[in-house]
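Incident log entry.

Two folding requests arrived from the same account within the same minute. Monitoring flagged them as a possible duplicate submission, but the sequences differ. Recording both here for audit purposes.

Request one:
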Amino acid sequence: MNNEDLTYCEMIMMKELLSERGGIVSRDRLSIAAFGEVFSKHNRRIDVRISRLRKKLPLNLDGKSKIKSVSGEGYAYIDDDWLSQYLGEMS
């Protein structure tokens, strides 16, 4: 994947997710960054964009998406490098 494969909104959302690598980014924060406004919790615009973004990213070594949904909170970007570092710190 390269930047040409991503839409403008997807690039903005990736920037937000990567800025909190391993941490949770709220739907509201993604919404404001990508669209300049907060959508109601029933609006699926952010969820649809995240779904499309997931399809464009390679999977982690465990076969799972790098973008994790955190129920009631938002999304987190967790890649193999971050996961390895996190697990190493827990040892």
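Request two (distinct sequence, not a duplicate):
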Amino acid sequence: MSEPSQTTFRWLYLKRDSIKTYFKPQKKISKFLPSVNCNIALQDAGVYKLDCECGLSYIGQTKRSIKTRVKEHIAEVKHRRSGKSAVCEHVQDRPRRYIRFDGLQILAKNTDSYQG
């Protein structure tokens, strides 16, 4: 039988003294979500496409600026609020899959306001 490791002794002391420990990940979710600062003009309304690492894509349409809507998607994913974002629901349903916000594609721009 091998001797107990230093980690085992540390755990026993923490348990004996009723000290609770919590896991803190080394990387925060913000490290996986790149900023939306890109050189293409995202100020127009239009249709955009976001790809996921799993091979699926999300195509969205907005009357506001595409940049604003994508920032909202990022905030929803970061704070795990899936009620307003299908992108966030997708990420929550498929752990360890990441939306490629840095690969945003603009499919169509509309500089006129929608008559909806």
